[in-house]
Amino acid sequence: MNRRKTLSAMIAGLAAGVLGAAAPNVAQAAEITLTYAFFAPAKTFPGRQMAHWAEQLAKRTNGKAVAQTFPGGTLLGAKEMYDGVTKGVADIGLGSPSYDPGRFPLTSGVALPVGFTNATVASRTLWALTKEFQPKEYENFKVIAMFTTEPGFIQTKTPVRNAADLSGMKLRAAGTGVPVLKALGAAPIGMPMPDVPQAVQTGVINGTMTSREVLQDFKLAESLKFVTDYPTVVVAFAAVMDRKRWDKLPADVKKVIDELAEEMPAWTGNYHDNENVGAALQWATKEHKLQVLALAPDERLRWDGKLKSMEDEWVAEMNGKGLPAAAYLKRLRELRDQFAKR
Ligand code: DTR
After folding, report:
1. C-alpha closest to that of 150 among 277, 334, 324, 31
2. Side by side, which strands form the sheet with 236-242?
3. pLDDT single digits (tens) 64-78
4. CA 62 – ligand 1 centroid, Å
5. Separation CA 164–CA 195 (nearest Å)
6. What is the pLDDT of residues 269-288, one digit of tens each?
7. d(CA 92, CA 194)
8. Whose CA is nearest to atom 1 of ligand 1?
9. Torsional class of 219: left (φ above 0), alpha (ψ -120 to 50), beta (otherwise)
10. pTM assigned to the model
């Protein structure tokens, strides 16, 4: 613990030194300073969530606990996020379990093509499921915030109006997006979101399948001029603390963090669905002549048909690991419908 604290504090000190005034919320007088790492830029929606959480932590603990945030991969990148938290490089790490479905198998169920219509419903469902099922994949962590993207859309340089347009197209996706694109006939490539702009520019990929705010937040609309109007799968995010670090926090601070954990799914989903994505679509349409392409109804049905077997395959795979996959999916559908009504 001492080693961990010292390491974390050292890195925080170093990074704060390097970043200087750019490290926003360093409060000198706080009793507890939690370093909080995120792999993508601050202005993306998970980055906004991180900033909101940090602000609320300081406010609700009256400055007793503060978070020092490190967005943009300055402390930990996408692939090392969860190990980095275990090693004490950061006290809190915001990563995407969807980037590593092998490590977070049950969570990957939320990212199946189960028909979520927006991020708010998917985020609330993910959080409720995680509390109910207490997946073993988080056993060494304390989950402090969970949310998802909206369902991903195919965003491309050249128009995709049907399976023939998509056939063999090199597209980037994350997690379950990879098998989804494969089933639809594309040639998917997995890579973390921050690598996408360069891969688009250099022609490594013809586009990406993900939530649509990236058109603006990663300036992708400069090259990706088409969105195919076919919602697919969400991507899950989880901010975690190492459990031993959590256990040492005072009860009043824990209480605030638990309270915030309850609020984060709806807060983030609401921001993403109702401000972030809409603004990005408007901007991309106005500034970059983005076109949204409808699928013909019979084409849509054919695409749905190609994705149908994914759930059963997932259940079989999870059963092989001894995980309660069928029960998880059943409850997912109930919660999805319940949250969608409100
Ligand atoms: N859709 C996921 C994650 C993603 C979407 N927007 C952002 C912003 C910042 C980081 C990750 C993401 C993906 O495709 O990677």
Report:
1. 277
2. 65-70, 32-38, 92-95, 236-242, 141-148
3. 999 999 999 999 999
4. 32
5. 27
6. 999 999 999 999 999 999 99
7. 20
8. 210
9. left
10. 0.91
